[in-house]
Amino acid sequence: MGVTVKYGSSAARVFAVATTAVVAASLVACSSDSGIDEGDSIEGTTIRVTLANHVWTETIKDLIPEFEKESGAKVEITQLAEDQLSDQYNVKLNAGTDEIDVLMYRPLQENKLFADNGYLANLTDQVEGDKEWDWSDFQEGPASLTTYDGEVVGVPIITERTVLYYRKDLLQAAGLEVPTTLEELEAAAKAIHEANPDVAGYVGRTGKSAAVTQLSAFLYSFGGDWLDGTDSLIGSDEAREAYKYYGNLISGYTNATVNPEMSWPEAFAVFQQGQAAFIADADSLYKNMTDPSQSTVADNVGFAAFPEGPAGSKPYNVAAWALAINEQSANKSGAWEFIKWATSKATSLEMAKLGVSGARASVWEDPTANADYPAELLEAIKVNGQNGVGYDRPLVIEVAKAREIVGEPIVVAIAGGDVDAAIDAADKAFGEFLLEDAE
Questions:
Q1: Does CATH number 3.40.190.10 belong to domain 4-160+318-387?
Q2: Looking at residue 438, what is its pLDDT?
Q3: I need a labelling partner for 362 at 20 to 30 A (CA). Which of 137, 157, 159, 324 fits?
């Protein structure tokens, strides 16, 4: 059987991927009041799957014919760019459509919104009841992110963590070891900048919204958090320390004027051009640092776990994308069989060998799965995966607005302004926002 694919108007980039057969996961019969009955045959049914333009999508498409052969079902894919995907969900899910069975979504932005609106089916009985499929194999951070009010509503497929990128040559020249604490990181940034005035000790995201994700690892490692229910926590002593530390780390050890609008591409460019010693950012972006066509320091890039703060090492470990079942689907059983197959140990391992690693701990531990990763990076990913917190921004319904509020003190801290006053104002505004968000 062939996979039917429908594309959105801004059709996808095409990734060259080898086609590899994967044996579909065995079907284990169980039933629940979720509308998912694994005892039902799905042979002859059509499973309608909506996916984003993404390397995960391009890779899984080549494996789906084996699922169709084993299950007897047909998979019909609608593939859209992210903006189109969001538009379609906003219209169709809100209207109660039954035209989508499986949806690929962004838990960080949409998990609370979709679950709160009743768009996502409860998968708790399925994920906890299938020992062979093994929900416990999923890393805690991503798994917690696709859970809402104690119910599992999605299965993570793409993850990323904060990793510390560093210049091996600069550390060696300064006679320094790789920092394992935030105190050591600041000391190393200071020492390297003093020895190399044209090199920033540390570079990072500075844009109000973009920097929120990177601040999160510092915030958690200082013992802080964004919120507790409807109470803002960004005015806490721990959060204040994190804001001030991050701002000074970026602006305190450089002779250059800091660009106040940097997201990851601009911050990475500074490092790639040999103008910074450290940056902590997403491990999924590592090839930007190790590709000689993009990075002038490719041969001297090192990787380390996120350094420990007063509360330990607590980087983010998040699910960037996940699969869920539309609550209004008339083919929930087929939808679950597709998700179970796509996220099984066998398929996840095969996807990793094809360059797309997910949330399963067993896959990260398998030496055959990630052979192309630098050994140092792989070790950092394992450590960060174990310690990671499952969110890198406030988990609210209006995520974009929240990031703008809590990101303002970052900008002030980097600029050397009155950080406490900025935090006080943001804390008040965020508290008011949280009360409105909860209504």
A1: yes
A2: 85
A3: 324
Quote the tokens at residue 344.
């099984």
9-18, 152-161, 355-364: which has the minimum mean pLDDT?
Answer: 9-18
User: Rounded CA gap, 351 and 18, in Å?
Assistant: 10
Q: What is the pLDDT of residues 78-96, one digit of tens each?
A: 999 999 999 999 999 999 9
Q: Do 316 and 389 contact (CB within 8 A), yes or no?
A: yes
Range 355-360 contact pairs with CB under 8 angstroms and sequence separation of 24 or more: 355/17, 355/55, 355/59, 356/55, 356/56, 356/59, 356/158, 357/159, 358/156, 358/157, 358/158, 358/159, 359/138, 359/139, 359/142, 359/143, 359/156, 359/157, 359/159, 359/319, 360/137, 360/138, 360/139
3-state helix vs strand vs coil in the chain, percent to 5: 45, 15, 40
Asked if 371 and 356 touch (Cβ cutoff 8 Å), the reply is no
Q: Cβ atoms within 10 A of the Cβ of 335, count?
A: 28
pTM of the model: 0.88
Looking at the chain, which residues constitute the CATH 3.40.190.10 domain(s)?
A: 4-160+318-387, 161-316+392-438
Site of tokens 């962004």: 106
pLDDT at 16: 34
- CATH number for the region 161-316+392-438 comes to 3.40.190.10
Helix (H) or strand (E) holding 156: strand 155-167
CB-CB neighbours of 71 under 10 Å: 22
